[in-house]
Amino acid sequence: MVFRSASRAPQLRVCGVALAVAFLAGLVTFGEAAPAPKSPPTPRSGQAKSPTGADQATLDQAKRLIDSDQPEGAAVMLRHFIEGGPPPELLDDAYLLMAASMFGMKEQAETIRYINQLLGEFPTSELVDRAKLLLARTHARAGNLDLALPLLSEIRSLSSDPNTKREALRLTGEFQAQKKDFLRAIQAWLDEIPLDAGEQVRETEGQIRELVNEKLDVPALTRVRDAYPKTFPGDLASIKLIELHNAAGEDHLVERDLRLFLTRFPNHPYAAKAADLQMIVRTKFKSHPYSIAAIFPMSGKLAPFGTEVLNGIQLALERSKDGGDAPSVGLIVKDTESERAAFLDELSTVLMDDRPLAVIGPLLSKNLPVMAELAERTRIPLITPSATVTNPRRLGNYVFSTALTYGHQAKRVADYAIRDQHYKRLAILYPDTAYGRELTRLFAQEIRQQDGEIIATEAYKEGDTDFRAVIAKLKAEDLKKYGLEVPIENDPAKPAPKQGGKKTKRILYSPGFDAVFIPGRSLDVGLLAAQLAFYDMAVPLLGANGWNTPDFARVADRSIEGSVFVDGFFADSTSPVVQEFVERYRKRFQATPSLFAAQGYDAARLAVEAIKRGATTGEAIRDYLMMQHDLPALSGPSGFSPDGTLNRRVFLIQVKQGKFVPLD
Questions:
Q1: C-alpha 616 chain-centroid distance
Q2: What is the DSSP string of 601-642?
Q3: Is residue 649 within 8 Å of residue 663, measured between CB atoms?
Q4: What is the pLDDT of residues 109-134, one digit of tens each?
Q5: SS3 (DSSP) at 360
Q6: Cα(183)–Cα(169) distance, rounded to whole angstroms?
Q7: Quick one: which of 120, 264, 402, 548 has the most CB atoms within 10 Å?
């Protein structure tokens, strides 16, 4: 008769202690595999062997050896125990202790083997969850975190033991932190706290505090702050951001962080210190004889773009100090996404009380009219770095734009096609989006004004992968005008016919257009280019700044080789001015500047230049920007057109051997 040992509970504690010790071991090393454990022999009587005090003493001794960091001795003892045919009630304990010994010896393969033996022979054992925890640790030690984490997730879902769940959550947090997925790490530890008791709660909170205070950079802290806007550890991340920005002398960011913290945590122990620091920062703002305001989304989905623009502005203000004779210009930052209902009132207060000499913003065209009205009323120039609205000056006499507009792109690529390449006939394939439709309209208008001809204009759905129907329509329109189809016999691309068979014929299509303009996303353009080439439309391709993504030239096939597109900024430009800006930006922010950063830089640089030239009122800055035609923009000396847009130089960029290269 087979029975369970009466001392099962102590045995479970044995395994728990043994594993706790074993888990403290260092990184795995792969040593020579130990011999596989043998299956226990069947007793001669045909009955299962009953556990004895000696059996339990053996397991206790093995545990003590593991506890005292002697896994080799424990392994020898346990191997003899397993080979001697122990009682089934103790065999799963022996397997788990043996796995713990192997873990202590850094024998990964043997650890996994004994765990799998336990799981295979005893799938309903009380030790299964403990075994899976050890298996997860083993995978993690070998660097296989993606194998460890699903095991821990399974344990958390299926285990009914709070202590096991707690340990699984603790390990999940540790492993996610190793992967630098800090939000998931923090959430795992927060989920662990309800299962903690006494000192364990403080220990878990301390682990989160250490992560936030010691391990996270500014982007990670910002994500934590936004993920936990009114709870721990969002407060911790907010305080750390305040400290970092204050240490860096970034007063505009400190002011923003303080305002956000006091709104979200008005009763926090740090609130009094935050209020005092806010007063200090505001006093410093008032110490600047002049200031400009930046109005962008600094939280929410558009925050990354607002941050890039703000980085460009900050770089322009820092650069203005290099000469030593530049006036001191403060920066006031307002978040358009923070307390949106009260934003306009707050902005109006800033314009009336702080009286900045210029406002840089907004990011989106839809926010421009109401801000333009405020600018007109207060006579403070409004410079948008990214709104692509046509003719911003129609919104007011104080509105300017340093953004790359659709008109800029359409004109530059049309000039390249007609004047530089002498193309006469062009086709257009465009995404059926506002961006695609407007660029198509403006490009077609430019081509016709320069005596070119648009053969066909066809729309495709953004995100499609099969463009046969669109290409067929383009071909049909072309054949009505200049396209040709010529039958070719004995097509070398097809096998020769058998004797007596019919000759093969292929229709060779020759496009009647010189190039195709595709103002779409790089992802769609790569697929379109390959399919155009397949259908005998191997003509030059022209594009807009949607093509300018890091992987486009490298990932797309050779069907885009030689294609040309335009953009308002090119980090690899040979221009010394651009290269200086890129170098400064990379050193300051550890990233490559984008078009948004460049346009923000231009907006601030031009405002500061006006102040340096003696413009000390909003009206004077407006007049300076309207009259000067050699303003120091990144793309070269330029001025604002009568419609309020900066006449920026647009870069021509070619795809060449898997890289982007400048054409001018």
A1: 41
A2: HHHHHHHHHHHHTT--SHHHHHHHHHH-S-EEETTEEE-B-T
A3: no
A4: 999 999 999 999 999 999 999 999 99
A5: strand
A6: 14
A7: 402
8-218: CATH class: mainly alpha
Per-residue pLDDT tens over the stretch 285-331: 777 889 999 998 877 788 889 999 999 999 999 887 766 666 788 88
Name the CATH architecture for the domain at 406-492+503-567.
3-Layer(aba) Sandwich (3.40)
The answer for residues whose C-beta is within 8 angstroms of residue 24's C-beta and 6 or more apart is: none
What pTM does this model have? 0.70
Looking at residue 546, the DSSP 8-state letter turns out to be G
295-404+574-646 folds as: Rossmann fold (3.40.50)
Contacts 24+ apart (CB under 8 A), 161-167: 161/129, 162/195, 163/195, 164/129, 164/130, 164/133, 165/195, 166/192, 166/195, 166/196, 166/200, 167/133
Q: Which of 204, 203, 206, 273 is nearest to 238 (CA)?
A: 273
The domain limits of the chain are: 8-218, 225-287, 295-404+574-646, 406-492+503-567
Residue located via tokens 């936990």? 228
Same fold, 295-404+574-646 and 406-492+503-567: yes
- What DSSP assignment string belongs to 285-324? HHHSSEEEEEEE--SSTTHHHHHHHHHHHHHHHHHHTTTS
- Per-residue pLDDT of 449-507, as tens digits, reads 999 999 999 999 999 999 999 999 999 999 999 999 888 765 555 555 555 555 556 78
Whether 240 shows a pLDDT value over 70: the answer reads yes
- 402: three-class secondary structure by DSSP: coil
Tell how strand 290-296 and strand 358-360 pair up: parallel
Helix (H, G, I), strand (E, B) or coil at 204: helix
